[in-house]
Predict the 3D structure of the following.
Amino acid sequence: DAKTTQPNSMESNEEEPVHLPCNHSTISGTDYIHWYRQLPSQGPEYVIHGLTSNVNNRMASLAIAEDRKSSTLILHRATLRDAAVYYCILRDVAGNTPLVFGKGTRLSVIA
Amino acid sequence: NAGVMQNPRHLVRRRGQEARLRCSPMKGHSHVYWYRQLPEEGLKFMVYLQKENIIDESGMPKERFSAEFPKEGPSILRIQQVVRGDSAAYFCASSPRKGANYGYTFGSGTRLTVV
């Protein structure tokens, strides 16, 4: 799977939107962009995934650049429970390799 | 619909004993993945199984570790002759299909402590 680059940490105020960036300049045309998060002392949790178009679900939105070399996970209104490590992961369409977790972005939410 | 169930949640073993970690995937999921997270480190893939078959064990240590996913019953990750360095959180995940259009559902993990 192609490599992704994320900031080590970010900080947000409670109830404000958060934009978590991810660079994946070597993405191939068939790679899906997946986002997971891991809250303290818990297992990872699926957040969202997409291929080319922007995606929305109840947890977040995923904005994918037109050239697909970067994407942004958007939490519309951060809460204290959103404090977690967020992982941006690429997976080939066939899923021949399992999820490979990098270091992710540690998001702190300030009350 | 219950999520991925892992047990036990916490397991304490003395050096040299065996540890057996169990994972019941979500209903309808036939693909199981095991990950290990050492203290203050990232998640590392260990093994990928699909009913009765090991598909990818590239992340498994060569000795003492084994995994199975029988036709009936949960997936088992077995660690023989545990050492202090095996102390970690072990997470299991499942998915309904192999393709990238399907996400993984993770369990809450088993925290193994070797004393």
User: Anything to note?
Assistant: The longest strand of chain B covers residues 43-50.
